[in-house]
Design goal:
heterodimer, A: alpha+beta, Immunoglobulin-like, C8orf32 fold, Jelly Rolls, 3 domains, 40% strand, disordered N terminus, B: 656 residues, alpha+beta, 12 helices
Chain lengths: 633, 656
């Protein structure tokens, strides 16, 4: 009997150790993968409205250096969270344990991100130097949190270039607690599930890695995941109840916003004086917004519920700084002092367009800005910026669903979309070609729409930054000297004007008596998206744009073009490209160019076609002409 | 003569000192409240109007404490200067004791209106095990605000008297440092950077320091005052520079000696002989460096017996350590190393890995010592006297048959005898425990070449081209290329390669030529195609299918510190391009032959037609590792020429 037990033990321990051997990973999970999630499980138990227990288990085999950051052995925690278990085990390729980390071996640090002065959020993490590839790290975390407002979203796929061998998600709630859940992008994946009124169970096996490709839809739009939300929840000492956006908005209003807009009477008098004699709400709003922009700056301090509740308007008024919530709430308070109604609005602020989930209400978004309805039109104010013009959304908040917080509850509304032709840049210029192969010229560049976003901040930059910008912008001109720059920011029209004069030595090349001139001096678009072998995902152009150019070219005395460039026109579903060159007089040419890129979604087969289009644009923008000495002919 | 000359200067200082009237905290001088812009540097977003620091010793609660007092006034010139309103005051702590930051005061001055910092808005944040910081931001900051703040640090760590940074990333109009140091503490001091002190005073004050326990004994103090005025901002965002700490103006202190009232003198550092003696007696350091028995027992035996040849033996050992360890990305010098533990875990810091190497070399009866160096970032070590904190890195030096080799086993792709780029910092100190330490120069590998030899066939009928090229890299160029190749798959490499070249250039096949590649060189073989070459009666072709520099790496108009390449280097491009049938050469690019002063660099470019082909020769040779800031304009122009030659050269083909 004893003998038997012993062999069993040996067998068992071998079996146990070998379970994370790299050999046992199915072949299809290795293709295109930097890491494999061997086992990824979470067990969530909601015991009460303000008590949630989470057991998290993550075993990652890292195949190469790019996979190192997929270990993700981070435990973020708030002050009131209790981490009971935290450990990690490292295995070699054969699945043998080579190192073990206990809770005390984890580093404990403040979880501060950019722009944050102070935060009481903390993170415990592992500092491990891999000594060989592949290796496997098992990470186990168990903790209790009162903050049930953030029930986990469970991803069956972790990221690009990561495959999943086993993923399991269990969710249980006390009978008295009601919850909602939603499955997303399950199509094409084999995910087994079972559920009862107070339990959910999901399991998925062997999901292959997805390769990251340029211009593809965002990962969350196609990766399978399941979302859960409680109808009654708790957040840093505050209870809440909501099962739809209206109710959630109501809760935010009642618990986090109301009463935070009190102002010092002196300040009220001050801003009332500021708008004295102004009747128009739009004009009042402009004055208040400019006042906020001129007098405050962005600083983030996050303490407890302060991570979700704005700093009071009074305090912002005193210190003249705040985070997005504080500054938005402050602007709202000032507007209300001059009789203009406005609404605190929650959004996902991101260059990549991201909406709040239309049909699944939960604590979402990462940013707050202000909505001011004036005569049936939505006016938007970005209160954290000292420079953005009034009602300019830019790429950070355009074209997406956001949550407007009103005293009557939350309202999902969509922000404006910027039109392709509205993202417009017009370059008008002229340049002189000298016989010493240098050029000298100037251009006026007028930008609006998203193209405004790319430039307006230049005006307030130090000279050096401005020079660097143009050295990049005209990066194709070697030996560029920036002679003069001046700017005009027409905030009311949301239009940015650059006056740029440049010169460049050795711009032309020579070959004995001939000069070689590349015509497009002021706006070459040389970007071609990188080659993708075997494209998998659709192609997304989220925002289009239109560039128009017109330059006068003064040729050096005694030179004439060998031949004029033939006009070119390309017209396809992605856009339009046109260039033309015409003779004005014996010494002067006129160059015209137009590039329209249209926003849209295209099937994956179109990727190469789009690249072809962009290559043709590159070729067009690099068109050279030969200049001959006149007496030669 | 000298005296006569000195007197007026001293007088001036007196006048000056009177001019700088001491103000109470919270008061601005007329100059400060009227200050608008800084004409000496109109790009500055913020300026220190005034800054004063003070160090002295005081007995508090029975312990000698080092007190630091700080007081500053900053002008915020525009919105980009708002970041300067965020203040961090780091402090050190250990298990037993801690530095204490106290008396933080901060006031924002806006046209005579003062807004004070609320003490509840001062935050305390842990940075890591030993460092924390106080953090705050000023209230009510506007363009034009003057931000004034002061604080005190009480430190039980007397060696934390570190000195003073005169130069910062914004200009300073006036910066003053005072220290009152009892004569029983001796500090080495040195001034770094290019700038001169405007005030440099040292006086002695009698009987200024005594211990309560020995009321009858006292020591006199040295009272120091250093001032710099109109200190320009320090900018270090340039390519190819040696550590910024070499050039940023700073006064450095290092505790060298303590003469106790009890008659016991403690020397911290004084001469290298003291250091050597101390290290010899240091069980920890000596113990780590003399662990050869341990390693003998724990490594493959044939490492020592494989070859009789000393150099081969050394190389085998080097490769063993190189492949055995994974570096944890940390540096390290002589202290606090755990070599055995590192060996067991197969990972360790630089010092642990290289001490393993030294032990093994010694176990093989080779003559190896530890050499202390400073990385390029860390700055050049002082040669005048030993300052141990000047060193942050440890390498091995081994002497074989009269030749010295410097070794670092942390990087996988490094050749025997080469050091990583970060170590190319001119010299270090070899810690020979038996015969005494000595300085030793770091001489980087001399042959660092990237050479492309290319053959290209053009076909103007189809407007395409194809060809092959070999790229041969040696020395550091080979090392960097190997590292680069190791970070990605071949597919990724080719995608990146295609993107980095001119448009319509595609690599069809790529191989590292294993036969021709060896320790000294890396040979890569490429096959490529070219599309959209053009057709018609006249065709322009840039003969540079591969370009070394797309842009001039030197963009700034001026440079205030030397250009430092670390190692000398050469780039070559040789191409042979056929002249397609039915075409003839109409034009070829003009030759170029440019040099740097003192023949320290050569750039040559030449095209000619020969036997139905265009032959292209291009070479760029940098013969110095360092070029002074005075020579910057030449270096910039030199690279401008190189970029122009590559980007703006065309061979013009014409239909016959």
């Amino acid at each position: 009997m004893r003998f038997f037990a012993l062999t069993f033990f040996i067998f068992f321990s071998n079996f146990f150790h070998a379970q994370y051997s790299v050999k046992s990973i199915p072949e299809n999970l290795l293709t295109g993968a930097d890491a494999v999630l061997r086992k990824h499980t979470m067990d969530v138990v909601v015991l009460a409205q303000d008590k949630m227990e989470i057991r998290y288990h993550r075993v990652v085999t890292v195949l190469n250096e790019d996979g190192d950051d997929k270990v993700d052995a981070y435990a973020y925690y708030e002050k009131n969270d209790k981490i009971s278990t935290l450990e990690a085990i490292v295995y070699n390729a054969n699945g043998n344990e080579i190192k073990k980390f206990k809770k005390k071996d984890f580093l404990d640090q403040s979880a501060i991100s950019g722009g944050t002065l102070y935060s009481d959020s903390r993170v415990m993490f592992l500092n491990y130097t891999p000594i060989q590839y592949p290796y496997t790290i098992e990470f186990i975390q168990e903790y209790t949190t009162p903050n049930t407002a953030f029930t986990p979203t469970w991803p069956f796929l972790d990221d690009y270039n990561v495959s999943t061998e086993l993923s399991e998600f269990d969710f249980r709630a006390d009978e008295r607690i009601q919850f909602r859940y939603q499955e997303q992008n399950f199509d094409g994946y084999q995910i087994s599930s079972s559920s009862t009124s107070n339990e959910l169970h999901y399991k998925a096996k062997n999901i292959e890695a997805i390769k990251s490709e340029p211009m593809s839809p965002s990962f969350r739009d196609f990766a399978p995941h399941v979302k859960v939300g409680l109808n009654k929840f708790h957040l840093e000492g505050v209870d809440g109840a909501a099962s739809n956006w209206n109710e959630l908005g109501q809760w935010i209003y009642d618990q986090l916003i109301i009463g935070r807009d009190k102002l010092d009477p002196n300040t009220i008098i001050k801003v009332q004086n500021l708008v004295k004699g102004v009747e128009d709400d739009y004009e009042k709003t402009r004055l208040i917004y400019e006042y906020v922009q001129a007098n405050t700056r962005y600083i983030n301090v996050k303490l407890g519920i302060g991570g979700w509740m704005p700093m009071s308007a009074e305090e912002v008024d005193r210190v003249k700084y705040g985070d997005c919530k504080g500054l938005t709430n402050y602007t709202k308070a000032l507007l209300s002092a001059v009789g203009v109604n406005s609404y605190y609005t929650v959004v996902y602020g991101d260059e990549q367009i991201r909406s709040l989930d239309n049909d699944f209400a939960s604590m979402q978004g990462n940013h707050v800005f202000l909505n001011v309805p004036i005569n049936g039109e939505d006016i938007w104010l970005e209160c954290t910026s000292q420079t953005v013009p009034m009602n300019h959304l830019g790429t950070f908040t355009d074209n997406r669903y956001v949550l407007k917080i009103t005293p009557e509850g939350g309202q999902l509304v969509k922000t404006r979309e910027s039109l392709d032709e509205g993202n417009y840049q017009k370059t008008t210029g002229e340049y002189t070609v000298n016989s010493d192969q240098s050029i000298k010229g100037k251009a006026v560049i007028v930008s609006s729409g998203t193209q405004y976003d790319q430039k307006y901040w230049l005006k307030d930059q130090p000279k050096k930054e401005q020079e660097d910008f143009y050295k990049r912008y005209f990066g194709y001109i070697n030996n560029l000297t920036l002679e003069e720059v001046s700017f005009q920011n027409n905030k009311n029209e949301v239009e940015f004007v650059e006056n740029v004069s440049i010169k460049a030595g050795n711009y032309l090349s020579s070959a004995n008596d001939q000069l070689i001139l590349i015509l497009n001096v002021f706006n070459r678009n040389l970007r071609v998206p990188s080659k993708v072998r075997n494209r998998q995902k659709d192609v997304v152009i989220s925002r289009g744009y239109l560039d128009e150019d017109e330059y006068l070219i003064h040729l050096p005395e005694g030179f004439e073009p060998e031949e004029l460039m033939k006009p070119k026109r390309i017209d396809n579903k992605f856009g339009t490209y046109e260039v033309a060159l015409e003779k004005v007089d014996s010494n002067t040419l006129r160059y015209k160019r137009k590039l329209l890129v249209k926003s849209g979604n295209y099937p994956k087969e179109d990727y190469e076609k789009y690249r072809d289009f962009r290559k043709k644009v590159v070729r067009g923008d690099n068109t050279k002409i030969l200049l001959n000495k006149k007496n030669k002919t | 003569m000298l005296k006569k000359f000195l007197l007026p200067i001293l007088l001036l200082h007196c006048v000056f000192t009177f001019g700088q009237i001491e103000f109470e905290f919270g008061e601005l001088s007329i100059f400060e409240s009227d200050f608008k812009t800084y004409e000496k540097d109109t790009t500055a977003n913020a300026v220190f109007l005034y800054e004063k620091g003070e160090n002295y010793f005081e007995v508090r609660n029975g312990y000698i404490m080092l007190i630091t007092k700080y007081h500053a006034k900053k002008k915020i010139i525009n919105k980009n200067g708002f970041d300067h309103a965020d203040i961090e005051i780091p402090y050190y702590h250990s298990d037993r004791s801690t530095e204490e930051v106290s008396k933080i005061r901060a006031i924002t001055h806006n046209n005579g209106v003062k807004s004070s910092l609320d003490q509840s808005n001062i935050f305390d944040e842990d940075i890591n095990e030993h460092w924390s910081q106080k953090k705050f931001t000023f209230p009510n900051v506007q363009e034009g605000s003057v931000l004034e703040y002061s604080y005190e640090i009480q430190s039980p760590y007397l060696y934390n008297l570190k000195g003073w940074y005169f130069q910062d990333d914004i200009p300073k109009i006036y910066t003053e440092y005072n220290a009152k140091i009892p004569a029983n503490y001796r500090y080495n001091r040195s001034l770094k950077g290019e700038l001169n002190l405007d005030v440099n005073e040292a006086t002695v004050r009698e009987r200024c320091f005594r211990l309560p326990s020995r009321p009858n004994q006292s020591s006199h103090c040295e009272v120091l005052k250093y001032v710099m005025e109109h200190v320009p901002a320090f900018k270090d965002d340039e390519e190819y520079m040696l550590g910024a700490t070499n050039y940023r103006s700073k006064l450095e202190f290092e505790l060298s000696e303590k003469l106790g009232f009890d008659g016991i003198n403690t020397k911290y550092t004084k001469t290298w002989r003291d250091v050597d003696r101390q290290l010899r007696g240091d069980k920890d350091v000596g113990g780590q460096l003399r662990k050869k028995n341990y390693f003998e027992r724990n490594i493959p035996l044939d490492l020592f017996t494989q070859s009789e040849d000393k150099l081969t033996k050394a190389k085998n050992i080097y490769r063993f350590v190189q492949s055995y360890y994974t570096w944890n990305e940390k540096f390290g010098v002589l202290w606090e190393n755990r070599v055995k533990q590192a060996f067991d875990e197969r990972t360790g810091n630089v010092a642990e890995i290289n001490i393993t190497l030294i032990n093994l070399l010694n176990a093989a009866d080779l003559d190896a010592d530890a050499m202390l160096v400073s990385t390029r970032e860390h700055g050049l070590p002082k040669k005048s006297h030993p300052v141990m904190t000047d060193f942050n890195y440890l390498i091995a030096k081994v002497d074989i048959d009269g030749t010295s080799y410097l070794l670092d086993a942390t990087e996988k792709n490094l050749n025997f005898g080469m050091l990583p780029y970060r170590c190319l910092n001119y010299y270090g100190r070899v810690m020979d425990l038996d015969d005494g330490s000595y300085w030793f120069d770091i001489e980087p590998e001399k042959s660092n070449v990237r050479s492309v030899r290319l053959q290209m066939e053009l076909d103007f009928e189809s407007g395409s081209g194809s060809g092959v090229f070999d790229e041969i890299s040696t020395g550091y160029e080979a090392y960097f290329k190997r590292n680069y190749l190791a970070t990605m798959t071949e597919e990724e490499y080719l995608d990146k390669f295609d993107e980095s070249t001119i448009n319509d250039f595609y690599v069809e096949d790529f191989q590292v030529d294993e036969e021709k590649s060896n320790e000294n060189q890396l040979v890569e073989h490429y096959e490529f195609t070219l599309e959209n070459v053009g057709n018609g009666s006249t065709v322009l072709v840039n003969p540079f299918a591969i370009r070394y520099f797309k842009k001039n790496p030197f963009q700034s108009e001026n440079r205030y510190y030397p250009v430092d390449f670390g190692y000398v280097r050469t780039f070559q491009y040789y191409a042979s391009i056929n002249i397609p049938e039915g075409y003839k050469i109409k034009e070829i690019p003009n030759p170029m032959n440019v040099g740097l002063p003192d023949n320290s660099g050569v750039l040559r470019f030449n095209c000619n037609e020969s036997q139905g082909k265009v032959m292209v020769q291009f070479s760029l040779h940098l013969k110095y590792t360092q070029y002074t800031s005075e020579g910057y304009a030449y270096v910039k122009k030199f690279f401008e020429n190189a970029v122009t030659a590559q980007n703006n050269s065309y061979v013009v083909f014409e239909k016959i």
